Amino acid sequence: MKFKKYSIIVLAIIVAGIGLISFTSDQKNFEIAKNLDIYYTLFRELNIFYVDEVNPDKLVKTSIDEMLNSLDPYTNYITEDQIEDFRFMTTGEYAGIGALIGKQNDKIVVSEPYEGFPAQKSGLRAGDIFIEVAGKEIKGMSINKRCQHLTKRACP
Fold first, then answer.
1. Could you write out the DSSP letters of every residue in 41-100?
2. Which listed site, 19, 63, 83, 137, has its alpha carbon 20 to 30 Å from 110?
């Protein structure tokens, strides 16, 4: 009988603990949702009523950067267009052709092939102009499309 009484008390404490943890988690999720709603409302109001033109991308980037800066100097947001460079810096794996490329007079030109990478190994030299990639003519393609064909990511 005594064992049963203690079992019920222990069970009640466990249920109360789980309920408290769940309440704390729910409260935290509520706070996050509430603050995101405030952020969205403010963002929308600025976009509609601010006296000057608002750049939404710049506002979001600034808000993300400042939020992370408030935590510590080491936490950073890596955008989608920066992820390839980040992977290369952290793993040493390179997904491009291994050359610095640029645009000159609406042409994609090799500025510098990197030593030991596919571009250099295949004989590309500084000043070479890309006419086609993988059998696809790049004339008339947008610069972003051209670069995606060359490096599997968009050019800056």
1. HHHHHHHHH-SS---HHHHHHHHHHHHHHTT-SS-----GGGHHHHHHHHH----S-SEE
2. 83
Which residue ranges form the domains of the chain, and what is each CATH number?
Answer: 2-77 (no CATH), 85-151 (2.30.42.10)
Would you call 66 exposed, middle or buried from its count of C-beta atoms within 10 A (0-12, 13-18, 19+)?
exposed
Bridge partners of residue 102, in order along the sequence: 109
- pTM, full prediction: 0.43
Angstrom distance (rounded) from CA 57 to CA 97: 30
Q: What's the confidence (pLDDT) of residue 144?
A: 58
Of 114 and 1, more confident: 114
Residues 6+ apart with CB under 8 A from 148: 154
Strand (E) or helix (H) holding 136: strand 136-137
Within 10 angstroms of residue 114's Cβ, the number of other Cβ atoms is 14
Q: Is residue 109 within a helix (H) or strand (E), and if so which, with residue range?
A: strand 107-113
**DSSP β-ladder status, 107-113 and 132-133:** unpaired
Element containing residue 19 per DSSP (H, E)? helix 2-49
